């Protein structure tokens, strides 16, 4: 199974989730998961600002509580905000009641209609409830910048190899990924620009 670009059958599991945007449009949607944290968020924001690019940050509620300054930086610079649960919990490891409560707790801080489930999985019942209130956003390309098995150049290769029209590209705003991002994020952005991609964010309404 290809991890970087989810198989079609995985996309069928959550049919109303966003996996890829318009395939006829030369545009990509950059996303950053798991933040905000002071060790990574400011540098990512500085890099995006250098290239005039907006992204969507799917944030962990408890990180917002602990790092309100970094959260405010993301908001003030005009980036999109999404909900990544309060404690970065997986749906299969929790009851539906507990999982949904965790999402709502995060949204008391985030005030977003966008949700991305950690690890890209949730119980069917959780999905059915969440989709009534939120737009669920998955991805077309997960760069695996968090992986200890990949070096920075392999992460960059993933971006170059798997990006296509409408790709929702997932990086991570985390300690696991920041060293690799410092090596390759500017190069990845320059490559996307050179290929003619426009950078878009999801509707925040």
Please provide a written account of the structure.
- The longest helix has 17 residues.
- α5 packs parallel to α6 and α7 packs parallel to α8.
- The model has no long low-confidence stretch (mean pLDDT 96).
- β1, α2 and β2 form a beta-alpha-beta unit.
- By secondary structure, the protein is an alpha/beta fold.
- It is globular and about 45 Å long.
- It has a single domain, classed as Alpha-Beta Barrel (TIM Barrel).
- The strands form 2 sheets. Strands 1, 2, 3, 6, 7 and 8 form a 6-stranded parallel beta sheet that branches. A two-stranded parallel sheet has the order 4-5.
- The protein has 8 helices and 8 strands; from the N terminus they run αβαβααβαβαββαβαβ.
- The chain is 41% helix and 14% strand.
How much is the radius of gyration in Å?
16 Å
- Mean pLDDT over the full residue set: 96
Taken as a percent bin, the fraction of beta residues is 5-15%
What count of domains describes the coordinates?
1
The tally of helices reads 8
Q: Main sheet?
A: 6 strands, parallel
Structural class: alpha/beta
The CATH topology is TIM Barrel
Name the CATH superfamily classification: Glycoside hydrolase/deacetylase
In N-to-C order, the SSE pattern is HEHEHHEHEHEEHEHE
Strand tally? 8
Can you name the CATH architecture?
Alpha-Beta Barrel
